[in-house]
Amino acid sequence: MGKTTIQADLKIDGNLTSTGAIDINGDVTGDIEAAELDILSNGRVKGTVKVETAQLRGSFEGALKAGDVELQSQAKVDADIECATLTTAKGARLHGDVKVTGG
């Protein structure tokens, strides 16, 4: 499985599906399904995301369902999150409903 990178100069309005990893440094408005998602510090995502692993450093708005979620210190999240594990770094901003199943 490869990694797809959405660069800072790219804006996507539409859904993304991948069996591998997606790194986002640009803007995505739409739903995302992938094995792994990394929203980089300049990245912005608005939509519903379903992934095994999510690492958020940039902005995310919507709903997230994942196995493992990690919010880095730069993360700005306005979303409902359902996950097995959640790690939050000092400085990360989170607004929304959170359900951690511990599974």
Describe this structure in words.
The chain has strands at 3-6, 11-13, 16-17, 21-24, 27-29, 32-39, 44-56, 59-71, 76-88, 93-95, 98-100. It is an all-beta fold and 103 residues long. The protein is built from no helices and eleven strands. Strands 1, 2, 3, 4, 5, 6, 7, 8, 9, 10 and 11 form an eleven-stranded parallel beta sheet that branches. It starts with a strand and ends with a strand. It has one domain (3-100). The radius of gyration is 12 Å and the shape is globular. The model has no long low-confidence stretch (mean pLDDT 96). The chain is 0% helix and 67% strand.
Structure at a glance:
The chain is built from no helices and 11 strands.
Mean pLDDT score: 96
Low-confidence stretches: none
Number of domains: 1
Overall shape: globular
Name the structural class.
mainly beta
Count of beta strands: 11
- Strand content range: over 45%
User: Largest sheet, described in full?
Assistant: 11 strands, parallel
- What is the CA–CA distance across the termini? 25 Å
Helix segment count? Answer: 0
Can you give keywords for this protein?
single chain, 103 residues, mainly beta, 11 strands, 0% helix, globular
Write the layout of secondary structure elements.
Elements: E1 3-6, E2 11-13, E3 16-17, E4 21-24, E5 27-29, E6 32-39, E7 44-56, E8 59-71, E9 76-88, E10 93-95, E11 98-100
Parallel strand pairs: 1-4, 2-5, 3-6, 4-6, 5-7, 6-7, 7-8, 8-9, 9-10, 9-11
